[in-house]
Amino acid sequence: VSWVRHRDIHILTVATYTYTSDQRFQAIHQRSGDSEWTLQIKYTQKRDAGIYECQISTQPHRSFYVNLNVVVPTASILGGPDLHVDKGSMINLTCIIKYSPEPPSYIFWYHFEEVINYNSDRGGVSVITEKGEITTSYLLIQDARPSDTGKYSCSPSNADVASVRVHILNGERPAAMQTGSASRILNHQLLVFSILTNVLSSVLMTAYLKSWIPNYSMDSDRR
């Protein structure tokens, strides 16, 4: 039995011998019951994804194909890449870790390039982590102040780093936070829709009454 990687038509193993310099690959043979030939790949990487062929040296040859999908854990911080927080309010950064076969063993939070110290003199800094199929880590910073401005990063043990930039506002309202003009446009559109709906309802009602009431007219209705 041989295992072949289709990406580069590379023979990986023949019987229990390995024919690649990548020692992560190994063929395991179990003779108990039905004969089983297993291709083991240690420390799986994204580039290992693809089709693998198990070839049986019979006449004619027989083959069995396996499509290997490698899921890569990802981390992201909600609301990024920029978050605007009012001075004196609470900073709430939420890091989501998905597609992980198991929860990360640890998650470090950084401010700029330094690990955040939850016992620092700054005070009011805490982290809440909920582990599961999707792991969520919350970084909570009370009483936001100008020194809290800057880049924050979430670094799980099993995924790439995710970052966000926090801006502490002192009464400013950047364009990203100005929703008044959008609200006025939406209200105007709703008003126009309401007027058109009323007009259409009036027209339909008049047509309905004319079809059922003889000599009906808008003038007689007003009288």
Automatic annotation (TrEMBL):
InterPro entries: Ig-like_dom (IPR007110), Ig_sub (IPR003599), Ig_sub2 (IPR003598), Zig-8 (IPR037448). It comes from the Eukaryota. SMART domains: IG (SM00409), IGc2 (SM00408). The keyword Membrane applies. Residues 1-65, 73-165 form the Ig-like domain. The chain crosses the membrane at residues 190-209. The keyword Manganese does not apply. GO terms for cellular component: neuron projection membrane. GO terms for biological process: synapse organization. Pfam families: Ig_3. Keywords: Membrane, Transmembrane, Transmembrane helix. Coiled coil: none annotated. Signal peptide: none annotated. This is Ig-like domain-containing protein.
